[in-house]
Design brief:
The complex is a heterodimer.
Chain A: E1 4-15, E2 22-33, E3 37-41, H1 48-55, E4 64-72, E5 75-76, H2 82-86, E6 93-96, H3 100-103, H4 110-121, H5 126-139, H6 145-148, H7 158-170, E7 176-180, H8 188-205, E8 208-213, H9 216-222, E9 225-230, E10 233-239, H10 240-245, H11 250-257, E11 307-310, E12 313-315, H12 324-329
Parallel strand pairs in A: 3-8, 3-9, 6-7, 7-8
Antiparallel strand pairs in A: 1-2, 1-4, 4-5, 9-10, 10-12, 11-12
Chain B: H1 2-37, H2 43-47, H3 54-64, H4 70-83, H5 102-137, H6 142-156, H7 159-173, H8 189-223, H9 226-233, H10 238-266, H11 270-275, H12 281-290, H13 294-322
Classes of the chains: A alpha/beta, B mainly alpha.
Chain lengths: ~350, ~325
């Protein structure tokens, strides 16, 4: 049943900084399946983007130290020679980014940017490449694609630009698409269109998708499985319906409680107190401990492992399993160290 | 769409050319006021040079129409510029110290200065781009630091001293290159290059150092852009990422800088021309200033200002060609 495409095992990413090493990713394990969407949720700085930039080997080796394993179809990308890595980026993994205006070259026509990808990875004539670029634009739903291909990024709308990025990432028909906050810079209506497009391409061509987002709402719309990240670690992971239906980790509870409900009043919004820890100075034990309303003395002793409790649904919390639901409904007072909201 | 684009561009260039004409008109007015009106005393005596004879003063007064009122004088001055006078086009009279006509000398000297400046610009770009790019690819490396150090030496070396040092080394000591002077390209291309090489180097080394630092900075900025990450993410070879994506974007703002520097040098290569005995505009304006030969000073001033306006127009057009975001719509 499960056909693992990308498998991340015990990934550590550390950045050198004047304030000491910054542990952006700290022992992360994840897997993305062929033809399915993995949603990765977390606040800024939780390590979600860094994880997949590490998978693409796009982090600057001068500042970032990466260890662990990232396997694509069983092949460890982290040990691949850089020349072979070039044939992974593009032909096997496509990636799109948050701000498509910044991510497209401002001085090159969008069609040329797509055909350049084709020409870098195969012996293909200029004319064939530009024909395929137009076809790629058509496939992502861009009207009059041959005209659009001759335009520059600044002449297109935000949604069109992100479609161009998707066309470019998928023109070589990779098995995996990594979408790093693809809709954050877009309007809500356009966001829905882009998500629908990605989902449609996933089912049509059997693409594996990693959807990185800080937004639970975005991820819940399209993800099959979800991983919730906090301070460089996954703290909950499982099928989308389970993670959002029966969340197990107090951090996930907090994320869900801080979402506005359409029918709810203002009082239903409960922000998580405090701020994520500094990655250069992590608290002992559970990273969420200092902000957790259910904190026990044992929480500060060691970093809890991600433990599978139900089929495919794992969390990293040492609260006893029975009675977690009850706990969530009757939250304990917030910890003393939380600062009052400004 | 393409045709429409060219048409828009053509209209833009036309509009800018008209503006450049207006600027040049203002320049003529300013030079007229500075050279004819502002100084005290009889302009005819001033233009006639040191210790003129009554005859020359009378000829100058007649030539320049100084017996008319100021407005008419300006119009006559403009008319001479536009249609020329008996000494050639543009009508700038003759030098009162040598007696030679200004216009033909102006063209000849402008050619030498242009060769000097453009050749130097090519050299400083050929040095500045690779050094800047390589330093940006390996910031804080030994290469980066030593290029900064060598650059600082070039920037702080006085040009006349560098010129004489080169002459001493390559001409007097090693005998590899011919000394001062100028040979036209059509007479002997090899001798031409031999004579120009040291002036080119003297003029370009400081600029090469400055441009290397500027290009390094631009490259470092560009390499941090999202679209560079995109280029890498689609599996382009690093060489292509650097040249086709990063360098291309980094060089666009350099165009404006280059145009301004070239324009400034056209009227101001005084020291290099003097050291290497090149009969260009720079050495001419020096001569004009030293001998109070006003027609020469006026001619070079006009050429230099017109060069600045035309080159900035060229820079804007090239900029628009390179960066679609600033194209006129």
């Amino acid at each position: 049943m499960s056909d693992v495409l990308l498998e991340i095992e015990n990934l550590h990413v550390t950045f050198a900084s004047p304030h000491g090493p910054i542990r952006a990713v700290d022992g992360l394990s994840l897997r993305a399946e062929r033809g399915a969407t993995l949603g990765v949720v977390g606040e800024s700085g939780s390590g979600k983007s860094v994880t997949f930039l590490a998978a693409m080997r796009l982090l600057d080796p001068a500042t970032a130290t990466v260890s662990g394993r990232i396997r694509l179809d069983g092949v460890d990308l982290l040990t691949l020679p850089s020349r072979e890595m070039q044939t992974v980026r593009g032909p096997r993994i496509g990636m799109i980014f948050q701000d498509p205006l910044a991510a497209l070259h401002p001085l090159l026509r969008v069609g040329d940017q797509i055909s350049e990808t084709l020409r870098a990875h195969g012996d293909i004539s200029r004319r064939d490449a530009s024909d395929r670029a137009v076809a790629a634009l058509r496939r992502v739903g861009i009207p009059s694609p041959d005209e659009r291909a001759r335009q520059y990024p600044h002449e297109l709308s935000g949604g069109m630009r992100q479609r161009v990025m998707i066309a470019m990432a998928l023109v070589l028909e990779p098995e995996l698409l990594i979408a790093d906050e693809p809709t954050t810079a877009l309007d809500t209506t356009v966001e829905a269109q882009i998500l629908a497009l990605i989902d449609d391409l996933r089912t049509r061509i059997g693409l594996g998708v990693v959807l990185i987002s800080h937004s639970l709402a975005t991820v819940s719309q399209v993800a099959d499985t979800v991983a919730v990240m906090y301070a460089g670690r996954a703290i909950e992971r499982g099928p989308c319906s389970d993670v959002f239906g029966q969340p197990q980790h107090p951090y996930t509870w907090g994320l869900l409680d801080s979402l506005p409900a359409v029918d709810g009043g203002h009082e239903s919004l409960t922000p998580i107190p405090g701020a994520p820890p500094s990655l250069a100075d992590l608290p002992p034990g559970c990273r969420f401990g200092p902000r957790c309303g259910y904190r026990m003395p044992a929480c500060g002793e060691r970093v809890p492992d991600l433990v599978e409790r139900h089929a495919g649904h794992a969390d990293a919390c040492i609260l006893p399993m029975d009675g977690r639901e009850g706990l969530r409904r009757a939250p304990i007072a917030h910890p003393a160290n939380s600062e009052p909201a400004p | 769409m393409g045709g429409e684009c060219i048409c828009v561009m053509g209209r833009y260039i036309l509009r800018r050319l008209l503006w450049t004409l207006v600027v040049i008109l203002i320049v003529t007015l300013v030079t007229f006021v500075i050279f004819y009106v502002l100084p005290s005393g009889d302009p005819a005596v001033r233009f006639a040079g040191k210790e003129p004879t009554q005859q020359v003063v009378a000829q100058v007064r007649r030539d320049l129409g100084l017996n008319h009122n100021v407005a008419v004088q300006y119009l006559l001055y403009l008319k001479r510029l536009v249609v020329g006078d008996k000494y050639g086009w543009p009508g700038l009279g003759f030098s009162y110290t040598t007696g030679g006509a200004i216009a033909p000398q102006l063209w000849q000297r402008a050619q030498i200065t242009l060769q000097l400046v453009l050749g130097a610009a090519v050299i400083w770009m050929l040095i500045g781009i690779p050094v800047g790019v390589y330093a940006a690819l390996k910031p804080r490396s030994a290469f980066d630091r030593s290029s900064l150090l060598v650059g600082l030496v070039f920037i702080s070396t006085p040009v006349f001293w560098l010129g004489m040092l080169l002459l001493w080394l390559f001409w007097a000591t090693l005998g590899w290159l011919p000394g001062t002077g100028y040979v036209t390209f059509t007479t002997d291309p090899v001798a031409w290059a031999g004579h120009m090489l040291m002036p080119w180097l003297t003029l370009s080394l400081a600029f090469a150092a400055i441009y290397a630092r500027i290009i390094r900075g631009k490259m470092l900025d560009t390499l941090g852009e999202d679209y560079i990450r995109t280029a890498r993410a689609k599996g382009l070879p690093e060489r292509r990422v650097v040249t086709h994506h990063a360098l291309r974007a980094s060089l666009v703002p350099i165009v404006t800088l280059l145009a301004v520097d070239i324009a400034t040098l056209i009227g101001g290569t005084v020291v290099v021309e003097d050291v290497f005995n090149l009969q260009g505009l720079g050495s001419w304006v020096l001569y004009g200033a030293q001998n109070q030969d006003l027609p020469i000073t006026l001619a070079v001033t006009l050429v230099a200002t017109i060069a600045v306006s035309l080159l900035s127009l060229m820079a804007d057009v090239i900029y628009a060609y390179l960066d679609p975001r600033v194209r006129p719509r």
